[in-house]
Amino acid sequence: MVVISGANKDIGKSSLAAYLISHCRSCAGIKVTVHAQRPPGEAAVEEGKPDAEPLTDTARMAEAGASPVFWMRTTVEDMAADLAEIWPRLDAPVVIVEGNSVLDHIEPDYIVFIMGPGLGDFKPSAYNALRKAHTVVINGDRTLTAREILDLEKEIKGMNPKAKMLVVSELGKVKAWEIVLSRAVGMVGGEYMSNEVEDRVLDAVKAKAQEGRIACAVALKLAEELKVPAAEVGKAANALGIKIANCSLGCF
User: What is the distance between the alpha carbons of residues 87 and 84, in angstroms, rounded to a whole number?
Assistant: First the structure.
């Protein structure tokens, strides 16, 4: 089990969840939202085939390859019972969970916490999630100074001495996500998740390449058709010694 938690909304949790799911051989997905009062209807709503744009968080999980995917709408008081009810329905060796308060009721193999470059905008459930995280990802485009990184690391270590910190603006998003994946594979097991390039991606890139090159536009189209991140096509090209030509978007 892998849990992706975060400081607030729109910090990158769903993007990372979809990335990890795309590297699972078989996995289920859950997004947990906590409400003050129990919402009407079923606590766990199963995601069908995504057909709307923009995709919801659970639809992105399903699009990335998770099955089944549930949106669990619950309260603090009902969460334990709702989790117990949904668990038998998760027929998969790996479960990717997005949420904070869920960490009060489960002990995952690997926990990632995503935040911006400061602790000032945390929602209440975020502090507990940060204290339990194995990896803390500092997301955002603003480049941090060495002093800011050291001060932030000191604050994080004060709350969670075991946490390892990754700074996206320093590494780049592709590299940061790859490091998280590598750590998840180490905790969950290579038989369930893999940071290696799939054979189907390698075969597709090899088929499209001409004279050791593949155009950026073709590579992006290939990623869309294969339903994998553009970075996976780039990794396949690197593994095959194929150059991505005319790339001006920074995707490869």
Answer: 5
